[in-house]
Amino acid sequence: MAMDSDIKLIDENGLRLDGRKFDELREIHIEAGVLKRADGSAYLTWGENKVMAAVYGPRELHPRHAQDPSKAVVQARYNMAAFSVPDRKRPGPDRRSVEISKLLSEALEEIVFVEQFPRSAVDVFIEVLEASAGTRCAALTAASVALADAGIPMSDMIASCAAGKIDGHVVLDLGKKEDNFGEADVPLAIVPRTDRVTLLQMDGDMTAEEFDQAMELAIGACKEIYEIQRDALKRRYSTSLEDYEDNEEDE
Amino acid sequence: MNEKKKRELLLPGDIIEEEDVRPGRGTYRRDNEIHASKLGVKTFRSGYVNIAAQSGRYDPKRGDKVIGTVTDVNSSIWMVDVNAPFPAVLHVNDVPWRVEFGDTISYIDVGDAILVKISNVDELKKVQIRMDEEGLRKLNSGQIIEIAPSQVPRVIGRKGSMITMLKNYTGCRIFVGQNGRIWIDGDLEGQYIAVKAIQIIEDKAQAVGLTEAVKEFLKKETGKDLDQEE
User: Fold this and answer.
1) Low-confidence residues of chain A, pLDDT below 50?
2) What chain B residue is nearest to A234 in terms of C-alpha separation?
3) Is the ipTM, as predicted for this complex, more than 0.90?
């Protein structure tokens, strides 16, 4: 049933174009607290993707009419740098990045204790410096590390990963060519501790069984990514813990 | 109790495994378990377990003494920025002077720095402050620097050891607001050294033996050796 695509995505040994197995992630590295000016930040590389996330707030929200008297508003802004893709990307928000920004805002609002900060905003700025498939997952993964780094009260972090279908096989974490020439792409984000899904999309088509399989693969990978996120934060803060004391103020 | 023991870093969502405690600041309860809601270390106070945040903005709490700057004035209140997500309100009844209605501006003007106490934070996060207690006042001289609110305990030091040392060596008057703003007043040379020393504390907050490192710096810069004099 597999569509005969122009290029072969899986070789005779059952390996993908970049030599990965079906259930193998690209290499992920995260560093927390990379920007001094922001309240929290994270830099993430995921295969060839490079993503920077910065968090500001909670702070007073302007314009005032956008304020919510009962909770904080999480405003994520996903932006691709002009040099992030082979052909120059025309700068500024477009249909795609507006959609992703909305998606990410809603996913992140799910974990932040927004009701603790009425009338205020939590701003999350995500810059994609280099893009090679799966940037929305990379963006969300980086953004939740940046939120934790910013000391924002939240119930947990979000880990995100995509699965998809190429040459008739369900595989994890599609690369650029697999995304372009494959049959389906399913980005997923979960709260790993509770398995709550905060983002789920599908581009292309697959059977119900294949979808379940893809979900299972992606959920497993999210847990792996969660550990990488935690590790990044621990590396950033572990050195500052020696003989911590909480003191009273005095003059 | 836990001398020099390296504290465990908790991340948002982590379960706090403690018996007989109630969830305090920086925590939440779910399914009978207490979880951390912020990145930090756990501390205990009167039956509550709290998370002492290691990062993040200032979270106003009643009783904190903070340094604010006035952003707006009208006939009966001053709006004050205390470095929190929410503006704070200073009412004419809560200042040490008897202010005639509409005469607020002649006492405190926009841009003035004041040393105040948080008198109340309600559920809607309306922050009220007061200036009519001892030690609270308008700051007319000196300079104000800002550090991360999570580093405030470090600048103060164990039982105020760090701040006392800073004052003794530099001869400056220093006040550390809980909101991360520090007021320093004294001769310019002393102020300069104090600012430098606080930068060292902020940059090297992690280093073991921080007090010693800062003392070395102060000795070198001021040419004093207070250990010898005693």
Assistant:
1) 1, 243-251
2) B9
3) no
